[in-house]
């Protein structure tokens, strides 16, 4: 979202998109506002923008209509619509329940609670 917007204008832009999705029969699951971030390259001569992730479900025919509105909205600089496969949907469900295994967790394999693994 355009970085020159004031806070209330930013929230208005996010609300506009959520209402658009809901008006097309979609259901918003989560809105994750990342805030102002630097771009990897300039977009419309701007080096930063507000990032927002919206997780939603909607009928397939609604997606094209939502994307069309995003494309013509001057405050939306870029957007990307992704479709989750079954594996990613399961991962999101586990994330919500805090049951996703931490693959980077350290495990002491010798069970004697010291730093030496012997």
CATH superfamily descriptor:
Ribosomal protein S6/Translation elongation factor EF1B
Give the C-level CATH assignment. Answer: Alpha Beta
Question: How many strand elements?
Answer: 2
* CATH-defined architecture: 2-Layer Sandwich
Structural class: alpha+beta
Biggest sheet, in brief? 2 strands, antiparallel
Rg over CA atoms:
20 Å
Order of helices and strands: HEEHH
Strand content: 15-25%
Number of domains as seen in the coordinates: 1
How widely separated are the two ends?
54 Å
What keyword list fits this structure?
118 residues, alpha+beta, Alpha-Beta Plaits, two-stranded antiparallel sheet, 35% helix, globular
Describe the structure.
The chain has 118 residues and is of the alpha+beta class. The chain has a single domain, classed as Alpha-Beta Plaits (2-Layer Sandwich), CATH 3.30.70.60. The chain has 3 helices and 2 strands; from the N terminus they run αββαα. Strands 1-2 form a two-stranded antiparallel ribbon. Strand 1 and strand 2 form a beta hairpin. The chain is globular and about 40 Å long. The termini are far apart. 4% of the residues are buried. The mean pLDDT is 84.
């Amino acid at each position: 979202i355009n970085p020159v917007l004031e806070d209330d204008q930013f929230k208005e832009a996010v609300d506009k998109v959520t209402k658009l999705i809901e008006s097309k029969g979609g259901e918003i699951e989560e809105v994750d506002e990342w805030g102002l971030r630097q771009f990897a390259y300039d977009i419309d001569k701007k080096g930063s923008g507000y990032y927002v992730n919206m997780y939603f479900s909607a009928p397939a025919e609604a997606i094209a209509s939502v994307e069309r509105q995003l494309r013509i909205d001057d405050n939306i600089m870029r957007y990307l619509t992704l479709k989750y496969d079954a594996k990613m949907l399961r991962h999101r469900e586990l994330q919500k329940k805090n049951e996703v295994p931490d693959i980077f967790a350290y495990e002491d394999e010798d069970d004697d609670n010291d730093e030496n693994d012997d």
